[in-house]
């Protein structure tokens, strides 16, 4: 099966909102290069139809999850403008597929990140500000039956995201130790800190910056980078009230409606 044919399966699942079988059987187990090519086919189609790329998301930033999937690196997906919703807006459950929520830190860039061997210091200098974020991940693969190639091809299981309103200087927040709490219907359902994200969210952004340079598509000024979950993701259901609190970055909340 060609990359185009596999991409069409995933796109059809998204359009019809009928999840498909895993696509990994059409690829070698760790053929990440092909999986990213499939991802790009569908992202490029959406951009050709008016979609606007506004950033990247980093997934699989938990070392434990990487071990479970038999990989030694995270993955990335592309953020398009229609994926973002704002504080005060509610999210329609009908727009989602098998949704789960996770809280993380977003980096907004003020400079391009070009060149080889990007360092933590390079990321700090290129960051305009950081803010809290909730990412709603979704899967076009039935029952979240995924391995690494499934999720990469499926644009890193991306769906929607919301950013907080408080902007902080990246150097003024203890990214490694700052605490996160995620509540659903006023119940604490997930918690963690920066160590859950590759030891420090800066590490995941450094990885992405170097990965994108290797691919000839460096991170650019103005991009939003979702750096990865600070704790376990949780299932979402209609009428759920969701709130995330990240130390030093304030709260975000929204309602999932029918």
Radius of gyration: 17 Å
Sheet of most strands: 8 strands, mixed
Strand portion, in percent? 25-35%
Given the C-alpha coordinates, what overall shape results?
globular
What distance lies between the first and last C-alpha atoms, to the nearest angstrom?
37 Å
Kindly state the number of beta strands: 13
The average pLDDT is 95
Output the structural class.
Answer: alpha+beta
Provide a descriptive summary of the structure in words.
This protein has helices at 3-16, 32-48, 63-69, 120-126, 148-153, 201-214; strands at 53-59, 75-80, 84-85, 91-92, 100-109, 127-137, 160-163, 179-184, 187-193, 224-229, 234-235, 241-246, 250-257. Strand 8 and strand 9 (187-193) form a beta hairpin. Helix 4 (120-126) packs across helix 6. The longest helix has 17 residues, at 32-48. It contains six helices and 13 strands. Helix content is 25%, strand content 30%. With 258 residues, it is of the alpha+beta class.
